[in-house]
Design goal:
- This protein is mostly helical.
- Helix content is 88%, strand content 0%.
- The protein contains two helices and no strands.
- α1 packs across α2.
- The protein is flat.
């Protein structure tokens, strides 16, 4: 489950970029 979550996060980063992802989290 943790591994799956990490993969999901990596897909979000590759899709939105680390900058946009940070603004979405905050």
């Amino acid at each position: 489950m943790d591994l799956l979550g990490h993969h999901f996060v990596e897909q979000l980063i590759s899709r939105f970029g680390p900058g946009e992802l940070a603004t979405k989290i905050v």
